[in-house]
């Protein structure tokens, strides 16, 4: 693993006396154990020798790359106004601070950025150009971007990793790829036709979980076991909690699970944000049963300090007392310090594999992310990467590197430049990168506030009646029926709405699942025209799908444009109101019939595949 040290620029190892991470090699899959370092990749270090005539590598000639430069107009890091980190900040202040209207200052103007064909630098960690980025490279990732992210991770994002030497990173093609490689590394596929049940491995997941992750696990034949969740996320103790599931494991199903897959911030779909205290409790259980924690965190940066306070204000309840979650060393940025720390920061054993991605902070089409874990696990992931993706696309890596690091010119070169050139793009740097994600948090927080406010107002079906039919009656009886409920999301991009079908007039006439299905169709019809994700999609087991899944819908406030949030939220609330006035089963049949007319509308033909039906 000494390999990593040569590529490391910046970043300080923790200074306190720390223990080596534990050895988890007994969990490596058979193929992972058998992997050898790629002899091809081993050659790359020799390519760097100045003046070497390289007849060894099967590399295409860089002059024949058809791109002379990559150029882009890019945002300034302060384009979006950030929201306060303080949960006690007043609502008005929040609304004002998070306004997405562009200020009449030049912070919203784009700036021009160029990745040159060939840069002069001989240092691979600072040389950002197409000659290197579009060539074959090392599996850790493009050296300049790798070194930036390593420094970001070790010094700022995860400054309190307790084990000796701290964590290492490897770049991925996003978290989907990161998870797939982690599974490949740490689990053996199991086939019921060929393999003994005693060899079947397993994974624990949240009681509602991200479908794509489940889709990666299931074909490997692992047992998928849900763990109970509450508003925060995974529960450590009590019925269905981590301890309960692991202590009472039924070995006739296979081995006790040694993996946990969890999304701890802005959980998809429930939006939970797992507190530091809960992390410590869960970590203790994972240590006791030797479980590896795979923490998938695309929404990490979207933690909303205003949510609990605004929810309490909207509902006339007492705002909760904010809980401090600092762990020691500061990240150097008040915004990052204000976020709940990752499991990595309580990871004394080295049992946490954390997945980060640019998908939600830059763009999903980037297909770049990184894994953070103890060095031995990263080394095995490196071996898997060498013979699979090799590394993310050089186009994207160089664009990202240029964006955050800027042109890497020497002081002499810089002095030679004209004044205009000197004033041009110099890269976001670490401060700009942190400011960018802080601004994104602000923008999404405001969307969350809008949607939550509208949905809050529409939760009840209010009926006014007079107790006696006398026209001159001076008083009326108001009855309030709760049709749905939800928590204001503390993080992420979703509102997880629970429908109270037990209050619907047809509840005793038809199965609740039928009501849920009809309501989902009803949303998509005119005049409502909103598409939401049914909770069934996120159910890890058939039992949860049948018993619980139908009660929930997931609404994403991130993708639609600002005015659409208002329309869609009102449409959702209005559709539910109207649906609660339906009193005959024939009307439900008619809604189902309306869904059949989708067949005639080509643009809706794909709906059933989105729904997984
Ligand atoms: N993990 C979770 C929990 C997600 O919600 C998503 C995207 O929605 C992903 C992973 C996909 O991440 P990536 O685009 O980096 O593969």
Automatic annotation (TrEMBL):
InterPro entries: Aminotransferase_I/II_large, Class-I_PLP-dep_aminotransf, PyrdxlP-dep_Trfase, PyrdxlP-dep_Trfase_major. Its cofactor is pyridoxal 5'-phosphate. It comes from Calycina marina. The keyword Transferase applies. PANTHER family: AMINOTRANSFERASE (PTHR42790), AROMATIC AMINO ACID AMINOTRANSFERASE, HYPOTHETICAL (EUROFUNG) (PTHR42790:SF1). GO terms for biological process: alpha-amino acid metabolic process. The keyword Membrane does not apply. One of its GO terms (molecular function) is pyridoxal phosphate binding. Residues 129-416 form the Aminotransferase class I/classII large domain. Keywords: Aminotransferase, Pyridoxal phosphate, Transferase. This is Pyridoxal phosphate-dependent transferase. Pfam families: Aminotran_1_2. Coiled coil: none annotated. Belongs to the class-I pyridoxal-phosphate-dependent aminotransferase family.
